[in-house]
Amino acid sequence: MQLNRGEKCLFLCLLACASAFGAGYTPDWTSLDSRPLPEWYDDVKFGIFVHWGVFSVPSFGSEWFWWNWKGDHKAQYVEFMAKNYQPGFSYADFAPNFHAQFFDPDEWADIFAASGAKYVVLTSKHHEGFTNWGSPNSWNWNSVDNGPHRDLVEDVGTAVRKRSLHYGLYHSLYEWFNPLYLNDKQNGYKTQEYKPDLIWSDGDWEAPDTYWNSTEFLAWLYNESPVKDIVVTNDRWGRGCYCKHGGYFNCADKFSPGELPNHKWEKCQSVDTISWGYRRNMRLGEVMDVPSLIKDLVYVVALGGNYLLNVGPTADGVIAPVFEDRLRAMGAWLAVNGEAIYSTKPWRVQTEKAAVPVWYTAKNSTVYAIFTGDPMQNTFELSTPKTSDSSVVTLLGDGKPLKWAPLQSSGLMVKLPDLPYSPAYAWTLKLEGVA
Fold first, then answer.
1. What's the burial of 342, exposed, middle or buried (CB within 10 Å: 0-12/13-18/19+)?
2. I need a labelling partner for 325 at 20 to 30 A (CA). Which of 64, 291, 294, 424 fits?
3. What are the residue positions of the site described as May be important for catalysis (predicted)?
4. DSSP state, residue 403
């Protein structure tokens, strides 16, 4: 399906398949929230988030560089500019150096596919207002007329779809220093001079959903758009909407609910724990290691969520080797244990504390017990599963039936084989015929 530039920045996820959902949604939250979430999204579980824009040029502090420099006037940002750039240098002056000279979308897509991710979400426009496609209304503040001189949204989309990955777009509702928006803000959002043509959903915390015409947009999206049956949306549609309205819930960045929510949700997490955009001043200790990433993924999936893991490319268009290393290690683990992740559902019990932490997922009549740590012994007890004479236990990646014995009340003791190498120190027991 080929969409024009305007259409493709309205949608979170664009697919090549379709499923049937009811039409006739009205522009109110009661109606819109009744729309079933397309099944593909719950099945895929793991995606890659990409924060890339003009902020990748100074690549200092975070992707909020412009706001921290000119909005909050944070000392470290003011000092950085004073030391490294001439007086009068503006944020717009960074744009020509967002040249993406080493950007190879096929190389990116190969890395994403190797990570085991099933969907990719690219930043089409962050709060700085720069669009990664040739927006005709952005006054030269876009990637076709400035910087890379190419449609980055189109380039990434073409590459990831060739690898059968789903493709989505992040798009900020507001822009820090857009004078039309600032005038509306000063007027308490009683005026509406700021009318972005294309909206995804972030930057939602200042103005109410009525200012953004969110419900009208979503009603069109679900009823009439080219992807009405397959598009997925989140919950950031205006002040007070998050964790209440929308297709799935992001709630806060790096959201961790602690218990099984009653609504589909997603955790956005960055490999760089300090920033979503690339930072030249990043330190290795600020980068998540592989065991931490796998534990986070397992926790999220066991509690019914999706895991959207972010990397920030350089202004040159390079995914830093440390990020690539983490993504490929995720893929190596999923190549063995993905059966316990993709297309699973939360089990009746999500976790138990055995010799090491255990998280459960389920698929049809099969239960998976993912243990995130080496028990350092040849037997392993699980207290939750209820066994029968027909129960079968195997270790993913090995496949041979393991010896086991029932515990007195419920649960079982499994005789473990020598555990194979795992980049995350995490293994999965497949339990068939348990209740």
1. middle
2. 64
3. 268
4. P
Q: Of 338, 366, 387, which one is at a domain's C-terminal end?
A: 338
* pTM tops 0.85, yes or no: yes
Other beta carbons within 10 angstroms of residue 191's beta carbon come to: 13
Rounded CA-CA distance 270/277 in Å is 9
Q: CA-to-CA distance for 167 and 16, rounded, in angstroms?
A: 10
Two structure tokens written together for 149? 């001189």
Note whether 280 and 354 are same-domain residues: no
**Domain termination residue (choose one: 338, 362, 378):** 338
Q: Is residue 419 part of a domain?
A: yes
Statement to judge: residues 270 and 395 lie in one domain:
no
Report the helix count and the strand count for the chain, using DSSP H and E: 12, 14
The H or E element containing residue 351 is strand 345-353
Helix axes 105-114, 152-162, angle to 10 degrees: 40
- Phi/psi for 203 (5° steps) reads 65, 40
Determine how many CB atoms are found less than 10 A away from the CB of residue 259: 7
> Which residue type sits at 258?
G
Q: What is the pLDDT along the chain (435 residues), one digit of tens a residue?
A: 344 444 344 443 433 223 333 459 999 999 999 999 999 999 999 999 999 999 999 999 999 999 999 999 999 999 999 999 999 999 999 999 999 999 999 999 999 999 999 999 999 999 999 999 998 776 799 999 999 999 999 999 999 999 999 999 998 988 999 888 888 888 998 887 754 322 347 778 889 999 999 999 999 999 998 888 889 999 999 999 999 999 999 988 999 998 999 999 999 999 999 999 999 999 999 999 999 999 999 999 999 999 999 999 999 999 999 999 999 999 999 999 999 999 999 999 999 999 999 999 999 999 999 999 999 999 999 999 999 999 999 999 998 999 999 998 889 999 999 999 998 999 999 999 998
Give the whole-angstrom CA distance, residue 36 versus residue 250: 17
Contact 364, 383 (CB under 8 A): no
CA-nearest of 356, 425, 433 to 394 is: 433
- Looking up residue 69, the CATH number of its domain turns out to be 3.20.20.80
Q: State the total domains in the chain.
A: 2
DSSP 313: -
**Which of 372, 362, 359, 272 is closest to 322 using CA atoms?**
272
What does each C-alpha distance from 4 to 16, 153, 226, 280, 380 come to in angstroms? 16, 11, 11, 35, 56
Measuring CA to CA, which residue among 309, 288, 413, 242 is closest to residue 44?
309
